[in-house]
Amino acid sequence: MTVPDDARSPRPGVAPELARPRRRRLVVALVLGLVVVAGFLVATRAPDPWGDVGGDVLYAVATYLLVVLVLARARPLVAGALALGWCWTVEALQATGLATAVNDAVPPAAWLLGSTFAVRDLVCYLVGVALACLVDTWAGARSATPRRPGRSG
Predict the structure, then answer these.
(1) Residues 90, 109: contact at Cβ < 8 Å?
(2) pLDDT of amino acid 19
């Protein structure tokens, strides 16, 4: 007999993978650290346009992970919408000159706010968030799948 996901969850109506926010936050924090390191390496060492594109995609993934870190019970599409909204808002601010003013006052802010508006960045953010959503959905489905005795992974 198969037990429905809701019956295994300590909170009815919540999928099991979303019912374990502490473990989820730990995994997300570790992955976020790796993504940030990868983002710095790609953005500073890869030749353009690959460094720029890769950095933008990883920025979007890191933003998604930050949303999930704060809202561990958020479903992937909700986290993705919030992350994409943030990324696109930051990109739009670059077109206004506000990002430049903040970057002039606080130079390290350029790592978060960027410097110049580019339509390509909007697409890179969409790709990064979509990839993060897909991986999160896959990982959640994989962790919610009951394992049969004697079978690994």
Answers:
(1) no
(2) 52
Q: Which of 112, 81, 78, 77 shows the shortest CA–CA distance to 94? A: 112
pLDDT at 20 over 90: no
State residue 24's pLDDT score: 85
Tokens of 74: 């958020």
Per-residue confidence at 3, pLDDT binned at 50, 70, 90?
very low
Phi-psi region of 75 (alpha: psi -120 to 50; beta: other; left: phi over 0): beta
Helices (H), the chain: 5-8, 21-45, 50-70, 76-96, 98-105, 110-113, 119-144
Greatest alpha-carbon span in the chain: 63
CA torsion 100-69-58-17 (nearest 10°) is -150
pTM of the model: 0.75
Alpha carbons 70 and 105: distance in angstroms, whole number: 28
